[in-house]
Amino acid sequence: MSKIRVLNSKQGYNLLVDYYHKKEKYWDSFEKDRVLSLLGDVNNKKILDVGAGTGRLASRLVKLGAEVTALDVSEEMLKRIKIKTKTKIEIMVGEAENLSFSDESFDIIIATFLIVHLKDLRRFFDEVYRVLKSGGLFLVTNINQRKAPEIKTKEGIVEIESYYHRPEAVVEELENLAFEIVENKFVNEGETWINQIILAKK
Ligand SMILES: C[S@@+](CC[C@H](N)C(=O)[O-])C[C@H]1O[C@@H](n2cnc3c(N)ncnc32)[C@H](O)[C@@H]1O
What we know:
By secondary structure, the protein is of the alpha/beta class. The protein has 6 helices and 10 strands.
């Protein structure tokens, strides 16, 4: 039996960038168009996409007139955004738990398919609260993934360090920081929820 290597997000996504990028439609299916519609009119809004990856949503937000900053630990994922958008988008390598922005910098912050890779949600949510303007919106999704997928690569089988977060625990962490929960929706497949979509307000 071959051994599975567990990689951190930076190593993992730098290696798996092609695998992730090719499956955009599949990732979309966890949202069923219910994410961006929650944000309302984003024209001229300052938006931070944390864990932006290859810019699946960042590129759409730019097209809708938003001023977007895309942040990610994986420089290889971020490189794809430049190729794809060819539009003005601020790209930054950085960590979700340590955002290098001044207090109250953004109107909206989004984080889709990110928290599955964060062990300590409080550190990230704390930072989001700090850099969000008063009355600003935070859209976060929580995939129902109890076990990280094992992915075959030329370098053997790998998985990316992942953590399961109970939906109630995510809401509780946000409320503890004084976020107001505006929406808490679930995307289902059959009887099971596959993705939790939360819109919170500072
Ligand atoms: C599953 S991808 C999601 C990409 C994009 N948000 C989307 O919805 O398609 C997760 C992304 O989060 C990034 N990431 C993981 N941990 C991170 C951290 N602590 N800080 C910043 N980015 C992180 C990964 O590098 C990866 O690009």
